[in-house]
Every structure is written in structure tokens, then in C-alpha cells.
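ARCHIVE CARD
Drawer: 12
Card no.: 0347
Subject: one protein chain, sequence and derived structure
Cross-reference: see card 0346
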Amino acid sequence: MQKKTLTFLTVGIPAATALVVVQFAKNPQIVDSPDHLSSTDAVVVPFPAADGAAEYKAQIAIAAGKTEEKNPLQYYKPQPGLEGRRLLEEMDVNGVPVTAQSVKLARDLLLRGSLSSDEKLPLLRILAHLYNRENTTGANADIALTLKQMASDPDKQVAAQAAIKYARQVEYQPGTELVLRKALQNGALDTDSYFQELAHLIPSSPPEKQREFLAEIRAAGSLIGRDVLVSVLNSGEDFNAAPFLKSSDDMAELLRATEPTFGPTVGLGIVPAVRYAEWLRASATIESHKTGRSMDEIIMERLSQPNTDERKIMSFLISPQAGPLLAEAAPDSPIQKLVGIAQVYSAQSPGNQTMIEFVQAIRERTKHPPPPPPPLVVMPPTGPLVGPSPAPPGYPMYVPPPRR
């Protein structure tokens, strides 16, 4: 029988409450009895613990010491150009083990200086994906530090990728906004990207930073920042800073100053329709919070104003929020009248298939849809036929006389 050599690892907590990690080869697991011990497996034997902290720290210790024989990063050799990028993107799609070894391998490759910019881009994504709130690799600090360092890379595309991953994946850390501003000043981030990431940073920031970042976005009138914050507000989640946003005067002013508009051409596409409907919902949420009125009442009052752009009405009617109102629409009710307005507007552009589908979907959800408008009849011109204008001086042109 093979003799077993056991190595006992403490987890940095009192011995009476710790889990003892029994390691002798590979494949850690948790067992209830020492009878499961084998000569090929490492085993975690649970001892009595005061709370879940001991077990969590034991799992961190296992992750930190675990190695994988088939970790793809272990065998990657730098290959400048698109081939190396393709291989690393393939690794990213297939997944890399979330362990301390993967973090070390990715950091070594990035910091060694032998990778091309094409290779750094997917490798930064791989490294960022190894970061999580549970810190299961035990190396979150190393990941954050490397992303922050790479945000100063001479290659602007690499620096932008690192800055975005640092802000989005690591979330708020003291000075995160400085990393973004430096990337903006260096030309790695454009203005839209900067405000997009600043908006994404608000949910994880402390209250004083939330106010600071929102005030900066409002002062700039950033449309992409608005879109991000509208999505955050409409989520309604406390962890997503929704309570802060719906009570913020800066958010209310940002929405007032950046109401989505529509072009002069008759017609409506799905993207502008969704953008307006989400803006309208967020704006109504803030007003409802301040006044106590229902969101539906606020929205119906706004859309029922004279000379309201019909595309605003149609954008709301195709949104999920309009569903309950349409399902209860009584004859001659305000919501039914809005459906009628949308139908008439769509009839002005009979060749617009998107609007035809919008109206069809609205009517299907409406309890009492109004009768469809009569088909548009194109009348031929009447009156005498007038010939073309006389030719400009110096340009010979035959001008037929008017037909009588």
C-alpha cells in the first residue's frame, strides 16, 4: 500500500475554528469522513467552525494553491499579430480557470513586455474576468493593480481597454475617476466612452462621489451618460443606486435638458422608440417620487398634451409599461385615443413596415382598439397643365406652351 504523506495547512484563523486542508496531490474536495482519503486526491476535512468565514477562507487557500495541468495560459507562447489575438480570444470564449495560477500567468504575460498590442487586448479581458466580488482567486488586488498599470500603456487602444475594465469590473476604488480622466486626457478614451464609464461607476460609488459624478455628467449634457443612468434608474434596484437617482435634482435636470428628439422625416425606428420610452419612464419615476402621483397618470397627462409628436405616443404604446393600460382600455378612454393618434400617424407612411408592425402589435394588446383609419387615397393633380419655366438667359431651351 502506498504511504500517504499529509500536509496540514492553517487558514489564518484560530485552530479551534479552522478548517484543516489535507493536501497530497491534486483535485481538492470536501468530504465528511477521512475514509474518503485516497493517494491521488487532496481533501478538505471540515472541522467545527464558528461561522461561514472559516470555510470561505479555506476555499481561498485552496484556490491560491491549486494548479491546473491543462491551464491554456500555461502553454501560450507570444505570437505577434492576429494569430495570437485569435488564440487568446478563443481562450476567453472557452473560459480560463478562475484561480490564482491563472492570474499569475496572465499578469506575467502582460507585464513581461513581449506581447503585441493585438495580444494584450484579449488578455486584458481574460484577466478582468478573473476578478469577482468573492475574490475566489485571492488575487483581486493584483488584478486591479495590473489593470490600473495597463491603463497607461503607450498603445491607446490597450490603455482604453484597461481603463474600461478597471472601472467596470473592479468597480469604484478611491481614485478610479482619475484613471478614467487620465485616459481621456491621453486620448485613449473619447468623451462618450469617458462619460459612459463614469455613469457606470455611480452605483458602486460612495454617496459623495455619486453626487460628484452625476453633477459632472449633467454639466456636460452627456447623452450616453444619460442613457446609462436611465437604465440604472429604471432597474429600480437599491444596489443599483436607483433610490439616489430618483431623488436627485441633478438627475431630474439632466433628463429635462436631454429629452430625446426625433428627426424631421416621417417614421419611427425601434432604437429611437426604445430610447424615448425609457427616458419617459425615468422622468415619470422622478416626478412620481416627488409628487406622489402615479407614473401612469403622469405619462398619460404628458402624452395627451396638444401637438405632442405622434412618435412619442407610439414609442410609449409599444413599450412593456403600456401593456396593462392597453389591456384595460375602455372605449373613448385617454389610452384608446392615443392608439387612434398612432394609427393615423402610421397611415401617413403606408410603406413603412416597421410602423405597420408597431400599430399591429399595439392593436393586439388593446382591449377595445379604435377602428382603423380609412386607407390613404392619393388624388391626381387637377387644373391646367403648366409647362416648365423659361430657360435662363443664354441657355437655349424649348419651352412648350401651356395646354389649354
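Annotation on reverse: The chain has a mean pLDDT of 81. Strands lie at 7-9, 20-23, 26-30, 41-45.
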